[in-house]
Fold Heme chaperone HemW.
Amino acid sequence: MTDGLYIHIPFCHQICNYCDFNKVFFKNQPVDGYLDALGEELRMMEDQGIFGEGPLTIFIGGGTPTALSVGQLEKLFDSIARSVPKGRLIEFSTEANPDELTPDKLALLKEKGVGRLSIGVQSFDEGLLRRLGRTHGPADAERVVRDARDAGFENLSIDLMYGLPGQTIEQWEDTLDRALALDLPHYSAYSLIVEPKTVFYNLMNKNLLPLPGEDTEADMFRMLMERMEQKGIRQYEISNFAVDGFQSVHNKLYWQNRTYAGAGAGAHGYSDGVRYSNHGPLKKYMNAVAEGRRPVFETHNVTPEEEMEEEMFLGLRMIAGVSADEFRKRFGREVGDVYGKQIRQLEEEGLLSAEDGRIRLTDKGVFLGNEVFARFIG
Ligand code: SF4
């Protein structure tokens, strides 16, 4: 029985210049055929007993789920209702873009039991939004938060980005001011990573992407943490901040290395010691389902060593860190026996602390997380 369920909707009405997710431009795509295939995949998963009494969390991501029309969203939710038991469900989330989350879609999401919205705002600077290739403006984000509240949503989160091309620290401060003025219970903020096969990557290779330097980016991260703390919004993961009771249960399942099922093109899953991913291209995904097979493209049996590595580098992303007790219960070994050398070295470098039965990043380590995580990878 899986703890989480991720459902992928790979359609977008615009393609952002930094995005390397599995997505396609909406126009001329077989959207309804895809939704039929997705419904069939969920049915196969249910037949195979993957859901049992149902997942603890459902997360619909993309792409952009709100790129779907109201009718298409209804079809998606009908498929979920048919195949996914909700006996254990404690969190039902959907990603959304500000300019697509219309009042009728909000009403439908509410009616279908969605309780949490994760809205891709990214910035409150008009020029930076254009540069990212986003189609919404700053006012759309403010409007959609008002509309979501009017529709009865309380559990709202927005995503922000920093370290953007040409972004100044003053622009970032302004975005933080406007984001915090919304008084939301949850914020995610990620530094830009320029991924291959994106517009930004090509521009970078031509020296046409004026990224802020590492020091400026670190200053932006510091400002983010300070402003969240001043507002009483606690950092619980490197890039995630929430008031009490509003941490993302679904995302915590990933960092706690728990099981999750993935449905939809390019979705990933993890259960019974096996990580798998579905076919990414829509045609391959839909063909597999049409042939009566689950559209799994590749599987990987996770060795006990890999599982312990994952426990460390995923768990250390959380500010609470890794519990020595949990590690012992899960693996029958002491974390100090397996990783004593790495932990001692990182403690000497001031990047990790091991106290009260927990191993966690120090304040300095939070800035150098990737360096820490790499030490646990064999
Ligand atoms: S960032 Fe989101 S909206 Fe933009 S192209 Fe990627 S998936 Fe689509």
